Amino acid sequence: MHDPAAIAALGTRLGPDMLAAVQAMYADEQTDRTPPVVADAAYGAHERQRLDVYAPYDAQRRPVLLWVHGGGFVRGEKASDAHPYNAHVGRWAARSGLVGAVMNYRLLPDARWPSGGEDVAAAVEWLVAHVADRGGNPARIVVAGTSAGSVHVATAMQLGLLPPAVCGVVLLSGLYGATAPEDRDVPYLGEASPLQPARIAGAGLPMLLACAEHDPDRFQAETLALADAVFAATGRLPRLSVVAGHNHFSLACHLGGSDARLASDILDFVERHA
């Protein structure tokens, strides 16, 4: 269950031990194992270019939420036999009356920037072509990413790869070019990030930006830099939240659980824009 004190005690240093602790913390809330209505749909030729779709019973023309997982460019899965995470976002979307899609994408060492953004765009194109068959509205898609997944969504925005069907984006604790890549990011992004907050903001899409109270400093700085770029471009801040009582991993893992603050913000954002 959500325990802000326990999350705070984990600190801000990312690693597999923190991830395991966070996943264990929410295991009693993330018990839904509803299978997808479409499993392992191929949106490209690579074995990682696959997505799953979750939908309410008898859905018709419902807005679509596409979830892009994190994993530091080297790991992550849309569904796992070991835990419900990432699939939990698609299931939560379906429980909330949306059509949820959860995608995999190419990873290091097979992939370099901008492959993740290209994969996001290809997954959206698959949804545009096929999601109506499962009750989704192919003209009303919101794309949401966390951590590396947010990098890929931002890449697709910066490069103008997203079709008009995308009505908005949700970016959780990503890297947008405001800080120098760390050593672990260099194999994917290069020595200098090719991303630029001003160019991402220039895509003109409605955004919901969030980071966590106990995120590492760089993710907070990146979120604020992108929000500032949106303000510079439009004269208005995007929807922005520093979510209290959460860290880099719990920001995504808790969605659909007892702490409904961020989930409610996302659903409201989808309702307003899709």
UniProtKB/TrEMBL annotation:
Keywords: Hydrolase. The keyword DNA damage does not apply. It comes from the Bacteria. Residues 51-155 form the BD-FAE-like domain. One of its GO terms (molecular function) is hydrolase activity. This is Acetyl esterase/lipase. It comes from Sphingomonas yantingensis.
